[in-house]
Each structure stands twice: as structure tokens, then as C-alpha cells.
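Q: Could you fold this chain for me?
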Amino acid sequence: MKSKICFSLFIFEILFFSIVPADISYADVLTLPEGLRLATENNRLVRITQREEAVSEADTLIAQSRLLPTINASLTQTFLAHQPEAIFGLQIVPMSEKDYLSYNLNIQQTLYDFRGNASRYESSKLILETKKMDTKRIKNLVCLDLAFIYFDLLESEKMILVAAKEAERLESHLRDAKNLYDEGVITKNDLLQAEVRLSDARQRLVAVRNLRTINVSRLNNAMAIPLKTDVQVMDVKENPSDSLLTLDMEKAWEHAEEQRPEIQIADTILKALDMEEVTKRSEYYPKFFMQGGYDFIENRYQIHEGNWSLTAGISLNLFSGGSTKAGVTKIKQQRLKLFEQKNKLIDEIKLEVEKYILHLKTAREKITVTKDAVSQAEENLRINRIRYGEGVGTATEVLDAVTLLTIAETNLYKSIYDSKRAEAGLLYSMGKDLVEVYK
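A: Sure. Below is the predicted structure, expressed as C-alpha cells.
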């Protein structure tokens, strides 16, 4: 029994450590570039698209096989109840043996089919290219999602600091209020008010800590590692948005049209449809082929048991019920549909680029404003605490000053990480590789 338990534990360790990536350990300090690398390597969406790419590659090999000769071989052993015989006048002559062996080898090659098979192969290769582009698109989308989560986590950590500072300020105010109450300077109401505000601040601190835990789990899920992995994140110091702030809208649209994988996929599919139309139109024309082989039938009554053959042929489908014409029409309509989808996609991408540019500019303006607001709120709190300690100010003024400072700090950090999220979104919408940008 003990040996079975040890063996089970051994199997569990093998399975567990094969699932958990070896390149990240618990309580590691994670940087954004490292997180992007893990996401692109381990994310399940990326793995799914990679399998689709492998399926498309197999389709390409299937299409290529039509360009190569087909080789068939067979081997048979025949057993007859009666030996085949023929009557020649008064004589009965054997035609074949009662039991005999036969085999054949046949090779057939299409010589020319008006580029039907060649166009089918070219189309399959173009479709494979679209799958590779889609894998690139999914990787960049996963990187964008991870960057957003990463900045959400950093923002939640800053919110913990803000909530902790607020609770600390309110605790300091509560101590002052208790001292003044013991001296008979203030009423019980001021003391109760301070206690209620402190309790509320502590509840918000618990809430933002829970929010950080959720964001850590979201980050772990994006990197496909266990959700409970304790990961500490490092703040992003560099700001790639300095050059983005002065970016012309038209230039940004041009970059997006040139680099977005979605548009490249649409263009490649259009080329594939052209190849499919050539393949379909080839059904109108004849196909030329060459066939050769060797046949052997065991028969001692026959002069030549084995025989070589070479056949040149032509085949033409005279009538197929209009399916070829309908197929060509279908491809034309698919091409027109894709043109409209591509134009719609370009409009949506332009709107996305414009949205992130405006978000980035708004966030940067907010940062400038809120930086001044924080220093002003700190000075306001300092003055009101002095006035309250001297018995000139009221408790409400101090509590309002603490609230204003908390709001100012919250707005500052929110603006900072709104700016970073807008940066990542703008870079993605322009088709930039986020792994390279944040490397």
C-alpha cells in the first residue's frame, strides 16, 4: 500500500511540473517583456491558432499531391472452380490455368489541365499564409490583453498605496481628535465622525487588495500558469508615447493599413480567390494525361504473361449541369463580399486608431492637471490639520481635505495607467509588434 502511494505521488509530481512552466517561479518579479514572452508561448489561443496553421499546411500538401503522378499497384491470387476452356471444332483447348497469380503496376500523370491543379496548390499556399498572419494577429492581440491586465495590476497596487495612505491619515486625525476630545476641546460627534471615516477607508483598502488578487489571477491566466501563482510586477518606466503624441492622424492610418495583419489577410484571401477562379474555370477545358503500367497474369497457355503499356489520353467534361458556371459566379460574389468587408475593416481600424490617439492625449493632459492637484491637495490638508490642531478649523474640513487628497492621488494614478493602456492600444491598432515595442 505504501509503495502504491509513493508511486502515485511520483506520477503527480511529474504531471504537475510538466504543466507548470519551468521559466517562472513563485513570487518572481515579473517584467512586462517577460510577461509578453510567456503569453505568446503559453497562451491557449495562440496554441489553437498554431494547430490551425498546421492543419492548413497539411491542406497544402494535399493540394500539391495533385501535381505529382499517382502510382497504384495490385496483387491477386485467383481460384476457379472450373478451368477456362474453349471449343475449336472437335477439340477442347484450355484458355487459362485453374488457379493463377496476377499483379499490375499503374502510373498516371496529368500533363496539362489549364493550370487547374497548379492554381489549387497556389491557393492553398496563400491560405497557409493567411493562417500564419492570423497567428501573428492572435499573438499581438494576446499581448495587448496582457498589457492591459498588467497595467490594471499596477494601477490596483497604486490604489492599495492610496487607500493605505488615506487610512494612515485618518488614523492620525483620529488620534488628534481623541487628544482634543480628552482635553474637552471638541465634541463626541467629531470623534465619531473620524471613526466612521476610518472604518470606510479600511473597507476600501480591503476592496482594492481583493482587486489586486483578481488582477494577479487574470495575469496568470493570460500567461497560462496556475492562477494562485504569487507574481510581483515591475512598473514600466519607458514611455513610447512621447513620439505618439505628435503623430499625425493620417500617418497613423497609413501605418495601420500597411501593417495590420487583418488587412494583409484580406488581401491574401483575395489573391487566393483569384487562384480558385482559375481552378474552377479549368473545368471548361480538357485535361491531358499520360498513363503507363505493367500487367502480369500467370498463364502458361498465353505467349506473353506480362505486358507493358503506355497510354496518352484526353478527358473533357461535356456537361455538369451548370455547376462550373455556378462555381465561378460564387467565387466572384465572394470576392465582392470580401472587398466590402475589407473596406469596412479599414474604417473600423481608422476609428480604433483615432480613439486611442484621443485617449492618449486626454490621459496625458489629465496627468499634467492631476500632478498639480495632488500638490495642492497635500498643502490643503497640511493647512487644515494645523488649523484643526489650533482649534480654529473643524473636523469636517480636515476630513474633506483627506478625501480631496485621496481623490487627487487616485486620479493621478488612473491617468498614468490610462495613458499606458492608450499607448499599448494605439501601437496595436497601428499594427506594431508589442513584443518588439516593449522589449
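A (continued): DSSP finds eleven helices and eight strands in the chain.
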